[in-house]
Every structure is written in C-alpha cells, then in structure tokens.
C-alpha cells in the first residue's frame, strides 16, 4: 500500500516522502531550456525566487538551473529543497546565498513563495490521488501569478514530459525528447507524469494524442534521410495541421519539443 504523504518530524515540518535521489548532470536541461524561454517575463522581475523541489542525492541539477536562469536575469534566486538532511548538507557545500541556497523542505516549500517551482521526478511514487493533492499544496504556496512545472524524465534527460500549472489549474502539457532516441513518439509514454500515465489507454485523450503523433511520425517517414530531428519537425507540423492545438513553433519543434493546451490530454 502506498504511504500517505505526511509532515516529517522536526522543526522543518517538511511534507512528503523522500525520492530515490538518482540524478545526473544535464538531466533536466530540456525543461530548464523551456522554462527560460516560456517564462522569461515571469523571471524578469526584481530578484525572482525559483524553487527546485526534490533535487536528489546531488545538487548538480539545481546548480545548473541557477546558471541557466541567470542568463535570463542575473538577479534570479534559486532555492533547492530536499527532505533528506544529508542531501541538504551536500547542497550547502556549493551554495552561494542569496543567489543559490539549499534548505530542508517538501511540498510546503519550507515557507518559500516562489514565482516558479520546478518539481521533477518527485511524484511517481505516489498514487494519482496523492499526486493531485501535492499539486494543490504546491500551487497554493506559489507567489501570485506563479507557475509550477511538474514532470518526469529518464535518467539522462532524453525523454521528458511535463505539465505547467497556475492557481487556475493545469495550463499546458509538453513532450520533449531527443528524436534520435525514439522508435516512435509513443515511446514517451513511459515518462508521462503521474496525472496521465495511467490514462494512456484507448478512449483517453492522452492516448489519442500519442496515437495521432505516432501516425504523423509514420507519415513523416520520407523526412528520415534528413535526420530524426527533421522527421520530428514534420510530424509535429502534421499534428498541428490535423487540428491539434499546438502552442509553439518550428523553432521549438527543432529542439525536440511540442507543447499543447492541457485540455487536449486532461483525463
């Protein structure tokens, strides 16, 4: 039976369960790149606070997030949160407060009120109902107008899926990949976030999307001699032509991305 998220003992009163903690350098580069592009305006204010929740046994992806967001705004402050005290101690060794710091915390965000929260690979161990509750808890701790980006990726960041949420609920859904790593776009199903992964069955919207994208990939086969990236771009173009509400453009598609309205995959 899955454990119910609870407040851990101690002054931190951190909410949640420890993750496996596995991480690798550059694992989250794709979502970082998307965040820096999509939420540039949100990050452009005076000393905006960004929280990285559940960074794992190494703080490397939090350090990388801070470096990437400083290219948008050198005054960005990044706070890494972990439940495990040893992981927090490892973060403190590379901290550079106030621009980069680490603290013990969970879904309650240790009292922080960020404009942007990245929570990657932290909800797979929960039930779908518990993950929905975690969404509500995290969004409730954001600064006004803030955004939660929650998702999942493989161990080296070649296959990723994520959802962006605000106080109004889920807004967008993104698939991101290294096209050369795929047999078909449907391979990304293994990295769907908890809110969607159990709905990838006939009759559900996310299954319809992945099936349509697979069909577009097959139709785009003549582009294969130009490389997997060219085939991906053509497949996404076909998807948009078939009436799917694709929100980005060819520049993003060339990065192995496609972002759509959440409504087209909502269970």
Automatic annotation (TrEMBL):
Protein name: Class I SAM-dependent methyltransferase
Organism this protein belongs to: Saccharothrix hoggarensis
Molecular functions (GO terms): methyltransferase activity
Key words, A-Z: Methyltransferase, Transferase
Keyword Transferase: yes
Gene Ontology biological process terms from the UniProt entry: methylation
SUPFAM superfamilies, per the entry: S-adenosyl-L-methionine-dependent methyltransferases (SSF53335)
